[in-house]
Give the backbone structure.
Amino acid sequence: MQIMTNGLFKSLLHRFVANSERERISISIFFIPDKENVIEPAEGLVDEKRPSLYRPVVDYVGAFYPEHREGNRVIDALKK
């Protein structure tokens, strides 16, 4: 979403602190775009005053997941 909105919406890191006194329930929801779709900023959100912050990418998960596993944020690898 951060790429498609050209940085208007920020992706967050999910972090939590465990509490030994109370039970915690988390629900993860993942959105994985089709491997063949190009993910890039929407045309209406890019102009001379606000240039594209991210380069287009195909197979977002397959191409950049190894970087994420090394502790790096995938979104940072896609900045221009």
Notes: The helical segments are 60-69, 74-77. The chain is about 20% helix and 5% strand. The mean pLDDT is 81.
